[in-house]
Amino acid sequence: MPITPKLSNWIEAFEALKELIKAMADKGRIILFFDEMPWIDNTRLAFVKALENFWNGWVVTRNDIVLIACGSSTSWMMDKLVMNKGGLHNRITVTINLRPFNLLETEQYLTHHGFAWNRHTIVECYMILGGVPFYLSKLDCHEPSLAKNIDILFFGPNAILRNEFDELYQALFAHADKYITIVRALANHREGLTVKQIAGLTGITGGWLTRILENLLRSEFVITFTQYGNKNRDKIFRLCDFLTLFWLKYVENDSGKDVNFWSHSLQTPSLAAWRGVTFELVVLLHLQQVKIALGIDRILNSSSSWRSKQSSDKTQIDLVIERSDRIINLCEIKFCETPYIITKEYAMRLRTRMAIFQNETKSRKSLVNTLITTYGLVPGAHAAVAQSEVVMDDLFVE
Description:
This protein is α/β, with parallel strands linked by helices. It has three domains: 10-82, no CATH class; 100-285, Arc Repressor Mutant, subunit A (Orthogonal Bundle); 294-395, Trna Endonuclease, Chain: A, domain 1. Helix content is 43%, strand content 14%. A seven-stranded mixed β-sheet has the order 4-3-5-6-7-8-9, with helices on both faces. It has a two-stranded parallel sheet with strand order 1-2. The N and C termini lie far apart (53 Å).
């Protein structure tokens, strides 16, 4: 049995790998797979430099070697590989960004693993864990209650996701403290912030701020929205990582005295408000499904948000979809336990909001009030104010 040589650095390691590959003559294509490459890297041992020498000094002379590099640290993968200015510059053939599951994929995953939850419960699960398979894998299908599962994962003794926030950011980002500072600012302003506002709240400016926001975008921890009428000016950054939002709101300051905290909070006004705001984010992350439901996915359109600069109550619209057929959908998003009833007062609010929007934007396009709810609208005297609607099931499509 051959004796494995003792290697003192990555230069020697890649030389050993070269000799191993040479000994595999006529074995067909050779695939080199590096998992969690950011964790392999060590500045003192110069991993990236050794990889550059190995690739440019030898591998480029062959056509039978494929290198697959994986890593969960977005900042490292972007800085050291994708945006590499040295020996690995322009060496990447394909970049694969592994995205979280959408609602349909989450439903398929849970069903496959023995869960019999309805879509309302799956949406609530998504509001907490998002579509991250690792988090979903920690759910116990033998515990039928979502609330009890959440208690176990975050609030129970030895809860396995209780410390996930700090571990996650330390693992993903260099200088994690700066990322966390920005994430906290965004979490405190769920409607989103402009770059100028972020800089003012955090004190992080210039290149640092640009780099952090780019990495948060690439990691899909934040999304961007334009404000209607401003095109790309004053772009809004909004935190969209569900576990981060849940952890900062409910787990961080939890005393640990109530191991059934989530189960005991289900009927509280605070939780009802949290559901409403978080469902809005779920919808924004499923815009394509919304457009399919409205029948406008094949029509050129753009999405934005809008906030009045003149009305005393700062009227705002969750989602504005402007279409090339000269129609604008003014979308209102509601998370409900039952079909939604439009009252006389709420109908008047929608009409007033439409009038304020038309007056301030000077738009001459046709305006359509669109309600996005869990179970649709109850037919009634005032339901006609909503000229189109989208329901929760519409979000569960490809």
